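Slides due. Your pick:
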Amino acid sequence: MRIRLLLAALSLLAGPQLYAADSWPGYRGPTADGHFAGANAPTKWSEKQNVVWKTAIHGKGWSSPIVLGDQVWVTTADEVLDPNPKPVKGGPPANPVKEVTYFAVCVDRKSGKVLHDVKLHVDQKPQYCHPFNSFASPTPFIEGDRVYAHFGSPGTFCVDTSTGKVLWERVDLKCDHFRGAASSPVVYGDLLYLVLDGADYQFVTALDKRTGKTVWTTDRKIKYSTDNGDYKKAYGTPVLFTVGGAQWLVCPSAECTMAYDPKTGAELWRLTHGGMNGAARPVMANGLMYLTSGHTGKLFAVKPEGLAGAVPKEAISWQVAKNVSTRPSLLVAGDRLFMVSDTGIASCLETATGKVVWTERLDGEFSSSPVLAGGNVYFCNQIGKTFVVKADEDSYTLVTENRLDGGFMASPAFADNELFLRTKTHLYAIGKK
């Protein structure tokens, strides 16, 4: 297993920043792929066992926790309901929410005490958000003394982590999310990257992280076969790969996945694969790039060498269309690829061939992305269960099954052999006690 994990670490090519072992700076962690390097991650817990602290988080938000130093951050939103919602002709269903207040919440990592509860923005005319989603689903990003909280079209905010002061904000990057936003922000170098894939406009933009000013914006220019907004929206989070000395900002969307020059926004290549609701973050390992198509349930292993323009069929090494996740992202550990479908079917595949090693039906439905820690894969479901499974076995091998009150929409975070879990109501620190 150690050899497999070493190969995975060497073959994954992500952004230029390096993070300490005590940090989990954004969605999918320090290497953007769900890997935790620590060897002593907790594997057993309950409401009465190995809970270091438990802190209630007000409002509703599905963003995952991020960790840096002694701080843990999440975002959330308070909703004011409309007693008489009115539908818009030709639009989404009647909006039951008439006002939304957005927050960034900082919790002390040692004690669980709330240090900052920063009120960022009040939206008195919020877009419709599907009840399954939340107004605070994008995971924030933290580095140095700044945290970047993004809520899609309602706004993007840079907050000083020591004072809670808002340093800059952008509330002018607009699109109709149709069912709510979920794409998370990322920082590479001096730029903050955002993807806004709405029913009306779909674009990628890079902001100067110091000032919030736009550096470049690129229209997706996707030719859709329908005017149905559901088939245009997506929730993908960008990731930076380096291939043959060139950097690619890879951004999933509805119908296509594109790569852009991270400095200029120029499109480098696109893979047309169909589908909507694209949410899984791409990963690269063992000489292949792994992408999904959203609701059509296809997984592609793409050979990255020489990609330019329209990706040809010959560049696809293999593909599968059974039990592929839509909402949870993929996880690669050595020569194995792990995923869990929205309906709870966990799978382990060979990364080189796509051959199924094992499948197992887990309890419940899944939105949270799996993570790897201590040679185990952690799968968290929507009713509060976490299945800890061996990553290096040729058959499904359950280590522990754990349960907390509430369900998981957010993905886990690790730092210094502590596990941070966010349920629909609380934030937990799990450790070995």
The chain has a mean pLDDT of 94. DSSP finds one helix and 34 strands in the chain.
